Amino acid sequence: MVGVAAAWRRLRAWRRRAEIDRAVDDEMRFHVEMETADRIRAGMAPSEARRAALLGFGGVDRFKEEARDVRGWRVLEDLAADVGYALRGLRRSPGFTAAAVATLALGVGATSAVFSAVDGVLLRALPYPEPDRLVRIYEQDSPTNRWALSTVDYQAIAERQRSLESVAAITVREAALSGFARPERVRAGWATAGLFRTLGVGVARGRGFAPGEDRRGAAPVVVLGHAFAERHFGRGVDPVGRSVTLDRAAYIVVGVLPAGVDELAGVRAELWPILQLETPTRRGPFYLVGVGRLRSGVSLAEARRDLASVSERIFPIWSAGFQDREARLTPYALREVVVGDAARGLRLFGVAVGLVLLIAVANVANLVLARASGRRREMAVRAALGARRGRLGRLLLTESTVLGLLGGMVGVGVAALGIRGLAAVNPGLPRLAAVGVDWRTVAFAALVALVSGALVGAYPLALGASRDLATPLRGSDRRTGAGAGAKRLQTALVVAEFALALPLLVTAGLLLRSVARLQQVDPGFDPAGLIALRVSLPRAGYPDPAAMLRFWDEARRRVAGIPGVDAVALTSILPPLDDAQLNLNNFDLLDRPVASGGRQPVSPWPTASPELFTALGVPLLEGRLLTPRDDSLAPTVVVVSRSWARRFYPGESAVGKRMVAGGCVECPPTTVVGVVGDVKFQGLAGVGDAVYDPYAQAPQRTMYLVARTRLRPEALQRAVEERIRALDPDLPIGSAETLEERVRASVAAPRHWTLLLGTFAGAAVALAAVGIFGVMSYIVRQQAPEIGVRMALGAEPAAVLRWVVRRGLGRAVAGLFLGVLGSALGVRLVRGFLFATSPADPVTWAAVAGGLLAVAALACLLPGRRAARIDPVRAMDGG
Fold it and tell me: How far apart are CA 344 and CA 121, in angstroms?
């Protein structure tokens, strides 16, 4: 109780601090006045007498500190006093406070937003138990060439490996969902029985897959995503035990995943049907995502050696159709695969916002320096009253820290907006949907704000430590401006701002030029007026190639009869695509076979109807096109692109050349019958290799109906749905997409990164312009008497304007020279993002340098005009 009572007394004393401070001040003032009067009577000048009296009493601050020592809680009271003083000072300068807080908020907010992205995308562990034990398994034959697994690979891993506790396989494809209000296409992740056990993922209702359910002949089951279950069965309804019809096959619902779990092992799907693999007849095709969990105590290196030995054992068994002896089953940490190339983009983004933060700190430091120069007389008076340098330094540092924290508070809001903007731009970062402002973001923003505030306050503090604080009291007010040290520091800060802005502008300019060149690439076809719709045929109802071919022929004929449709074709893949979406096929040329054990070449391999080349506008260069006569009874043929022909038969004709396709050594050789123009199936930045298969010889279950039409996509969608459903009422049709949108989407990622980096480069330039504007305005204000003398001696206003602009441009030029060195880092980071653009592109460098100098000149123009209008008489008189 005694301790509580003492604490209560101290708390009451703290609350009465204002009254006590006033009493202490009155008592001190009385004694100082009495001592001053005595000294004046002794013959001293009034000012000297008062100063001596103050020093005799130890100064105001020492007197107050002794009083506070009696009351206790000195540290807290000092801190509260300093903070209160800082807030009052900032409130008396609203313009300075608003500018400084806004500048710091921009830097802190941008940095915190990037931290949230880095934290959510790169740093946080995957949402599985012991995620470091999870691996993704590939086929790989070189450090840069890896691909998915085949059925043979997965079964060999499941039966022969010793390093994995469990293993699973996934393949993602769209399925036809029926039995609800209307047929629709859904994204399904077909998975083997070990998926949920391997990942350690539980279900919200029901159960996961049971062992043996992935064997052929077992009852088909499915685990639903939470959103899918609510959308199709209703909120709160338990769908376990009911059935879902996919591709006209009934699947029993055995479980429902928890809310928010719509991605497993980096694969996104709406529902997860069991995958029952067929007995393989050859090593390929390679289409499975392999996932495994390492046994406890087994390292990734040990698992690689174990799976490599599995590759060695199965190679001889399947070598007739797969000759690449260098291919090895190779595990990678699942987190590394999920993150992918995000680290490279976020690294570039992080450097950009770091530079913006440094520029913001330099800008605010310049503002603080200018304000501190105007407060030198105030600091000198406080020193004369007995305030020690440490006390004054603490006041300045507290003020800058408060300023930084205010910027941090606003910066948290800026970070929230930045994260929303990043998600809206969607530069292709994984796990970005889960990124948001949380306590980690707030803590990081507070840390950055404190460090920024300390850096801002360090500048005037360092200058004040080496200066005679009494000097301003010995001169007039107009001679209490910035000293030589402060001026040099202000100049250095402006130079640094331009030096930091240059790398940002150069990298943004290089990306912009790269995107512009990428958008100028000819995709190899005319996308205007082309609309595509995807259709998938279920195995039930279309069990063999003949049934599929009948449907595709009739569907193409009916869509061609729609008014406003000029041409219709079928193709299994659409240009331009990313590498991950490509339908690649391997082959071996008969006249140039790959050496035994070597890697066979691969190319995009669209299955197409004869009308595709006319619909896309792809020209025939040699030989002939595919025709309706190229059916299952005719010899197997292909048409190749010009790039393919030049790659494998440079300087000679590719027509008539023969190959074994797909590793099928027992199949008859395929003959090249024609060469057509290049189509960018591997993206606008990729090569134009392609091999076209006649769809009548290899019909596919999933095809695109491509129409060249004058109709709008919605109108064509309705018309196609009517005609397809007249053929098959339960068959869902994919949404219509224009190939113009597809071409634009193929450059979306580099365009988005350019937009993001360009935004920060623009902010950096604006901050640098504000910095040089503020410094030149301050110089004009401080050197007004000198300028007035010049004008009184005959200097023309235009000469004064040129003098101000020239001084500002000198600082900008110095910054550009230093920035060239810093740009080397930015160029190195951006090199992998460039297309057909050299990092040393002279046009970009010249445009950036010229633009920065123009901005500097404009920023100096207003202070220069103000200097040119100075009245010499008033300036020399101090008015």
Answer: 12
Q: Is 296 helix (H, G, I), strand (E, B) or coil?
A: coil
Rounded Cα distance between 485 and 157, Å, is: 71
Q: For residues 203 and 196, what is the distance between their CA atoms, to the nearest angstrom?
A: 9
DSSP labels for 68-113?
HHHHS-HHHHHHHHHHHHHHHHHHH-HHHHHHHHHHHHHHHHHHHH
DSSP SS3 for 676: strand
Give the separation between CA 270 and CA 263, rounded to whole angstroms: 9
Cβ-proximal residues to 231 (8 Å cutoff; 6+ apart), any chain: none
- State the DSSP H helix or E strand holding residue 246, giving kind and residue range, or none if neither: strand 243-246
Q: What would the pLDDT profile of 462-517 be if each residue is shown by its tens digit?
A: 555 445 444 544 444 444 444 566 667 777 778 888 888 888 888 888 888 888 88
- First-last CA distance in the chain: 65
Contact 703, 552 (CB under 8 A): yes
In this structure, are residues 349 and 757 in contact, taking their beta carbons and an 8 Å threshold? yes
In the structure encoding, which two tokens stand for residue 604, read together?
Answer: 């995009």
Q: How far is the C-alpha of 293 from the C-alpha of 310, rounded, in Å?
A: 17
Q: Give the Å distances, CA to CA, from 249 to 179, 220, 246, 533, 700.
A: 11, 8, 5, 23, 19
The Cα 478–Cα 784 span in angstroms is: 10
3-state secondary structure of 310: helix
- Two tokens, residue 558: 């009916």
| Helical pair 748-782 and 484-519, crossing angle rounded to 10 deg | 160
Cα distance between residue 66 and residue 149, in whole Å: 79
Of the candidates 255, 848, 217, which has an alpha carbon nearest to the alpha carbon of residue 501? 848
C-alpha distances (whole Å) from 121 to each of 98, 341, 436, 742, 748 are 34, 11, 11, 27, 20
Provide the angle, in degrees to the nearest 10, between the axes of the packed helices 74-92 and 94-118.
110
Which region, left, alpha or beta, applies to residue 234 given φ > 0 means left and ψ of -120 to 50 means alpha?
Answer: left
Alpha carbon of 383 to those of 59, 62, 378, 457: distances in Å? 9, 11, 9, 19
Mean pLDDT rounded to a whole number for the chain: 82
Apex CA 380: angle with CA 378 and CA 383, to 5°? Answer: 115
The span from the CA of 8 to the CA of 5, in Å, is 5
Structure letter (DSSP) for residue 163: S
Of 500, 417, 412, 516, the residue nearest 767 (C-alpha): 500
CB 170 within 8 A of CB 289: yes
Among residues 351, 301, 620, 640, which one has the least CA distance to residue 500?
351
- pTM given for the model: 0.75
Lowest mean pLDDT among 141-155, 376-390, 436-450, 665-679: 376-390
Beta bridge partners, 205, equal: 256
CA distance 269 to 292: 19
d(CA 498, CA 255): 60
The three-class DSSP label of residue 253 is strand
* CB neighbour list of residue 763: distance below 8 Å, 6 or more residues apart: 106, 110, 356
pLDDT 10s digits, 280-309: 888 878 889 999 999 999 999 999 999 999
* DSSP string for residues in 175-192: EEEESSSS-EEEEEEEE-
Q: Which alpha helices (DSSP H) does 179-246 contain, by range?
A: 195-199, 226-233
Lowest-confidence segment of 250-259, 394-403, 811-820 by average pLDDT: 394-403
> 755: which residues sit within 8 A by CB, 6+ positions away?
425
Structure tokens at 379: 């600091």
Q: Count the Cβ atoms, other than its own, within 10 Å of residue 212.
A: 8
**Partner residues linked to 638 by β-bridges:** 672
Q: How confident is the model at residue 66 (pLDDT cuts 50, 70, 90)?
A: very low
Nearest by Cα to 657 from 644, 670, 647, 641: 670
CB within 8 Å of 591: residues ≥ 6 apart: 657, 658
